[in-house]
Write a structure and sequence with these properties.
Blueprint (H helix, E strand, L loop, with lengths): L7 E4 L5 E4 L2 E2 L5 H12 L5 E2 H8 L8 H16 L1 H4 L7 E3 L3 E4 L7 H17 L3 H13 L13 H27 L3 H14 L4 H13 L3 H19 L5 H11 L3 H4 L27 H15 L4 E6 L6 H14 L3 E6 L7 H4 L3 H10 L4 H9 L6 H19 L4 E6 L6 H13 L5 E7 L5 H12 L3 E4 L5 H14 L9 H12 L3 H11 L12 H12 L3 H13 L2 E3 H8 L3 H13 L3 E4 L9 E4 L2 H10 L2 H17 L36
Parallel strand pairs: 7-10, 7-11, 8-9, 9-10
Antiparallel strand pairs: 1-2, 2-3, 4-6, 5-6, 12-14, 13-14
Helix pairs in contact: 1-3, 5-6, 5-7, 6-7, 7-8, 7-9, 8-9, 9-10, 9-11, 10-11, 11-24, 13-14, 16-19, 19-20, 21-22, 21-23, 22-23, 25-27, 25-28, 25-29, 26-27
Length: about 675
């Protein structure tokens, strides 16, 4: 649209209104109002006469619709510019060779004013000005008077505009609640979050905000109950489990981790190149000092004006996010702007299936002033063709070069294993295009072999990027974790028990930093107990993993859990009445989900074994077994111990059942345990 002065103001955030000189403009009948909305939706572009006729008359134009269209255009011109209509031309509603265009100045649209208010609110929230952010968000929301484009809501041309604007309104409400939380106005934030979840019952960000507000207002039990409410609703209506963002808030509440629930607002800082800003003293992460040192080098390169990229991969709970948080703290100490992009979906979920979803979250923070243009390009399909997409990529890269040239920035992309293919494509392009820029990009991923992630990783390697593959903590590193905890715990382990405790915790967690830390925390509540039960936080993560498995796979894990931490394939086949190949298929599915690992047999003809990835997972499987089914499994295993002792590993002496005696009652034949057997 042309940027020209006008005393005419257009409102579409509710019933259509046009004001001139402070008074309303009479627009006439509904058909004419829909025509005006159709022209406004095109944002100043030309709309052909045939397209206008089809869109305004809903795809069923009458024989005289062309004449009606010209009449409506003439009367709209008279209504919008009465002083110019008599002279036969209009500066707003113009005639072109192929159709018509409505050239409305940007400042004359309430949608543009709303977007500017929202952009300011997001910037102020990200720079540590929650009071100003709250005011701007409220100013943006006040502009809404109802459903946008409401008169044309049943017309296809309005659907995309309505969706785009409603998404902006949702974001403004989220920003306002976040600002209220930062201002410690917890009651107001709770009320606003409850309204938001009522209006958007499937929006996980809204539920996370409500859980945070409830916890911070002293209603932690209610906050946890809300997680159960949204989980049941998502499962019942969409067949989905809550995403990592919502699960992270639940875990933070269970752990009373106020740093995640109520993070410190960012401080405003001059974003000049850092000179030699000292780092705050902080203990290195056990077992991660080498990786942290390597990432520190990336910050140094970015601080010198050189673009640096890194990929950090590792399994669930191996400390990828914790490593990124420590890097973010160090970057902030050096004067970097820090941008987080956390994926809110799961594999195959709406976010991972939405083109450019991940990169859009990043660009909204790095290029807030470009967000409207980017959304428009994507929503109208302007980047669908290869050449259009290349032009779009080049424009984004040029905007980033301009916006980030004078400030060092760290961009962290978490949960990259769920990234959409289009975002991978754009990241790969940026990795090649962006060279001499004070920018460090660190991508965390659970599965580095996923197709799109693997392509980006390979490209980064060719461009000199870094790929850090995390591994489980060693026994010595686990002991360091225990010693660190020992120094600050109110219920320390006796010195004589320190080595034994560290070994046992390392065994149960299999060196997984998250499970090891959670087991340590639970020891504070069970003084003197070196084998505490699996804490609620770890239990929740593991039950979520089990909940994502198909019933036959979960039934296999239940059978294996009753036997031991590692189970022979032939034994599992006998217990389930299946062939070894059938069991291997189920073990492969469990391994793909991260629940078990495969161990080769000692010889070429040995069938091999499956081992629980973490012994605590076996503990959770046993704890979740209904008593009757557990008893049936124990009985079947005990019979197999008696009949096929050679198949049962020596460790099976820990079975929670008594072996059958020869003088016992006559045995029943070994029963096959299908996935459908309950109890």
């Amino acid at each position: 649209m042309q940027a020209q002065q006008s005393d005419t103001y257009f409102k579409v955030l509710g019933p259509l209104e046009v004001q001139r000189g402070g008074g309303p403009v009479a627009l006439g009948p509904r058909q004419r109002r829909i025509l005006l909305l159709r022209l406004l939706a095109e944002n100043g572009r030309i709309v052909s006469t045939d397209r206008l006729r089809d869109d305004v008359w809903g795809g069923h134009p009458s024989r005289g619709s062309i004449s009606s269209l010209h009449a409506h255009i003439s009367r709209l011109r008279a209504a919008l510019e009465p002083d110019r209509a008599c002279r036969g031309h209009s500066r707003l509603l113009v005639t072109e060779t192929s159709g018509y265009a409505l050239r409305v100045p940007h400042e004359s649209l309430d949608t543009v004013q709303f977007q500017r208010d929202l952009d300011r609110a997001q910037r102020q929230l990200s720079t540590g000005e929650p009071a100003a952010a709250c005011r701007e968000a409220e100013r943006a929301l006040v502009r809404w008077r109802g459903t946008p484009f409401v008169e044309a809501a049943d017309h296809p041309f309005a659907a995309q505009e309505i969706f785009r604007l409603e998404e902006g309104r949702l974001r403004a409400r989220e920003v306002r609640i976040s600002a209220l939380l930062a201002l410690s106005q917890f009651d107001a934030a709770t009320a606003a979050a409850q309204e938001l979840t009522a209006d958007h019952p499937m929006n996980e960000v809204a539920w996370a905000l409500m859980m945070r507000a409830l916890y911070l207002s002293g209603r932690s039990a209610e906050a946890i109950r809300q997680y159960d409410v949204v989980r049941d609703r998502l499962n019942a209506e969409l067949g989905l489990e809550p995403g990592p963002g919502l699960r992270g808030i639940q875990l933070a509440i269970l752990r009373h981790d106020t740093r995640q629930i109520a993070p410190e607002p960012p401080q405003r800082t001059e974003l000049a190149f850092p000179k030699a800003a000292p780092l705050r003293d902080a203990p290195l992460l056990p077992g991660r000092s080498a990786e942290l040192s390597r990432l520190d080098e990336l910050l140094g390169a970015a601080g010198s004006g050189e673009t640096a990229w890194a990929m950090v991969s590792g399994e669930l709970g191996w400390g990828k996010t914790r490593l990124a948080e420590e890097l973010a703290r160090r970057a902030a100490d050096r004067g970097f702007a820090v941008v987080w992009t956390r994926h809110g979906g799961e594999a195959g979920g709406p976010a991972s299936a939405t083109p450019f979803w991940t990169v859009l979250q990043m660009l909204r923070q790095l290029l807030p002033e470009r967000d409207t243009l980017t959304q428009a390009a994507l929503s109208t399909g302007e980047v669908s063709a290869p050449m259009q997409r290349l032009t779009f990529f080049e424009d984004v890269a040029k905007d980033l070069q301009h916006a980030l040239a004078d400030r060092p920035t760290l961009c962290l992309i978490d949960d990259m294993q769920w990234i959409d293919p289009e975002s991978c494509e754009l990241l790969a392009f940026l990795a090649v295009y962006l060279r001499e820029l004070p920018l460090a990009v660190v991508c965390n991923t659970r599965d580095a072999s996923q197709a799109g992630v693997n392509r980006v990783s390979a490209l980064l390697a060719r461009q000199g990027g870094v790929h850090l593959r995390l591994s489980p903590l060693t026994a010595q590193e686990a002991k360091e974790v225990v010693c660190q905890w020992q120094a600050t715990s109110s219920a320390p382990v006796a010195a004589r028990d320190l080595d034994r405790t560290a070994r046992e915790l390392h065994r149960r967690s299999a060196g997984n930093p998250f499970f090891l830390t959670e087991l340590l925390r639970s020891m504070a509540d069970r003084t003197g107990c070196t084998t505490p039960r699996v804490p609620a936080s770890a239990h929740s993560v593991l039950t979520a993993l089990l909940g994502g498995l198909q019933l036959p796979v979960r039934a296999l894990l239940e059978t294996a859990a009753v036997v031991d931490e590692a189970v022979d394939i032939d034994l599992l086949a006998r217990l389930r009445g299946s062939t070894s190949d059938e069991v291997l298929d189920l073990v492969g599915a469990a391994a793909a989900a991260g629940a078990v690992r495969w161990e080769e047999g000692s010889g070429p003809w040995q069938p091999g074994r499956c081992r629980f990835t973490w012994p605590v997972l076996r503990e959770v499987v046993l704890a979740e077994l209904p008593p009757v089914r557990r008893k049936r499994l124990q009985t079947a295993v005990a019979e197999c111990v008696h009949l096929h002792a050679s198949l049962v590993p020596a460790a099976a002496v820990r079975l929670p059942v008594q072996p059958f005696r020869s003088d016992a009652a006559p045995r029943m034949p070994v029963r096959a345990l299908s996935s459908g057997e309950g109890g």
